[in-house]
């Protein structure tokens, strides 16, 4: 295999070199347990609090509103189960959407199993939930609305400011899974009007296994774990110091370069589409053309098998994802692609190419070339 072209940055990203550098002391000589009182714990503890400040500044929050977790899945689980269980006296109804990540959807099914009612808002063909549908769905027993900021498959950026306003006006708490958005588009928790927001470091060139939950001051939810009282007593467990430090460095670096990265990725996407359209392949672009994550390309190619295409690209050293998979002999279309009603003859041929700041112009042209040669000439 020649050089690898990695174009699955929505799945995970490469660790930033400066983030790695900042992490190393805490994996080596500065291994002290940040929760201890002696001097050897001082440096790791200071590093955690500096990271909390840096991260809070990146999303216009207060440092004491940032709670470190093991990543996006934990943040989503904590937000949803934590609020639902804390507010069960108010009511047992949660509202979410049909295109959420499984970390949200499966947290909601857990709640359904223990007697909660969950309303799944539909989305339109671009992946937007409707403000009117949300307004109608909210009842006096609704305790939480959880709607994602940016979709991980099709890249659509929801109008969270408008959706959260409906919930805020009715005094219903609002959580947003911003795992795909943080570090990629500007985030201001006050402008967004959210009470809780989930993020994960490995999606923005930070390390894996670390993330955070933003929790607006004054919002109460059940503690995630009990024990040593770390994270203001809400999420006990010895801190992942290196991970937290690496996350802060990676996030700040991405946030400082948001606009430049966005312009660069838009250029790469346009070049990709020019090349693919020129090849004459019949495909649809999924998601919103304008309110879209930079670098997210999700296409459905007519009469193709997305999973087979993904494997054939893999053989050529190109890493992408698919929105359809052949499990136990039958072709499955992802819940997101189903929700936006992509016609079946296209839906089965869905692939997601998520390019990142480390990709180059030759990378995207090579991906478009590889897709067209596989489809038009059957080339391996
Ligand atoms: C939108 C969204 N939410 C949550 C997650 C889960 O994050 P993590 O991998 O950090 O558990 C992901 C990861 O793909 C995601 O894309």
TrEMBL record:
Broadest EC class assigned to this enzyme: transferase
GO molecular function, one term: iron-sulfur cluster binding
Record domain Aminotransferase class V: where: 5-364
InterPro entries: Aminotrans_V_dom, Aminotrans_V_PyrdxlP_BS, Cysteine_dSase, Leu-rich_rpt, PyrdxlP-dep_Trfase, PyrdxlP-dep_Trfase_major, PyrdxlP-dep_Trfase_small
Residues in the signal sequence: none
Transmembrane parts of this sequence: none
EC number, as in UniProt: 2.8.1.7
Names of required cofactors: pyridoxal 5'-phosphate
Top-rank lineage group of the source organism: Bacteria
Family: Belongs to the class-V pyridoxal-phosphate-dependent aminotransferase family. NifS/IscS subfamily.
Name the UniProt record assigns to this protein: cysteine desulfurase
């Amino acid at each position: 295999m020649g050089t690898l072209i990695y174009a699955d940055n929505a799945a995970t990203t490469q660790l930033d070199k400066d983030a790695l550098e900042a992490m190393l002391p805490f994996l080596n000589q500065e291994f002290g347990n940040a929760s201890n009182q002696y001097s050897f714990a001082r440096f790791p503890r200071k590093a955690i609090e500096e990271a909390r400040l840096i991260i809070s500044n990146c999303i216009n929050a207060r440092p004491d509103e940032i709670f470190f977790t093991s990543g996006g899945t934990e943040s989503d689980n904590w937000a949803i189960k934590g609020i639902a269980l804390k507010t069960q006296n108010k009511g047992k109804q949660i509202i979410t959407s049909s295109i959420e990540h499984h970390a949200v959807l499966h947290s909601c099914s857990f709640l359904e199993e223990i007697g909660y009612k969950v309303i799944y808002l539909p989305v339109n063909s671009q992946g937007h939930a409707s403000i009117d549908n949300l307004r109608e769905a909210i009842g006096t027993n609704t305790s939480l609305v959880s709607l994602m900021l940016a979709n991980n498959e099709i890249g659509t950026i929801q109008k969270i400011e408008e959706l959260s306003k409906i919930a805020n006006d009715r005094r219903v708490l609002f959580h947003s899974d911003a795992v795909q958005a943080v570090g990629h588009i500007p985030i201001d928790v006050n402008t967004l009007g959210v009470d809780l927001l989930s993020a994960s470091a490995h999606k923005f060139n930070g390390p894996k296994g670390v993330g955070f939950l933003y929790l607006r001051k004054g919002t109460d939810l059940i503690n995630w774990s009990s024990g040593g009282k770390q994270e203001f007593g809400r999420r006990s467990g010895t801190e992942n110091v290196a991970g937290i430090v690496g996350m802060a460095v990676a996030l700040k670096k991405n946030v400082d370069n948001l606009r430049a990265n966005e312009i660069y990725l838009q250029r790469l996407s346009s070049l990709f589409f020019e090349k693919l359209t020129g090849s004459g392949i019949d495909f649809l672009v999924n998601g919103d053309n304008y309110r879209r994550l930079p670098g997210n390309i999700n296409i459905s190619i007519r009469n193709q098998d997305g999973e087979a295409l993904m494997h054939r690209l893999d053989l050529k050293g190109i890493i992408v994802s698919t929105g359809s998979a052949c499990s136990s002999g039958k072709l499955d279309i992802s819940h997101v692609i189903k929700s936006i009603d992509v016609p079946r003859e296209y839906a089965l041929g869905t692939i997601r190419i998520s390019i990142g700041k480390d990709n180059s112009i030759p990378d995207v042209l090579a991906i478009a070339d590889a897709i067209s040669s596989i489809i038009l000439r059957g080339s391996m």
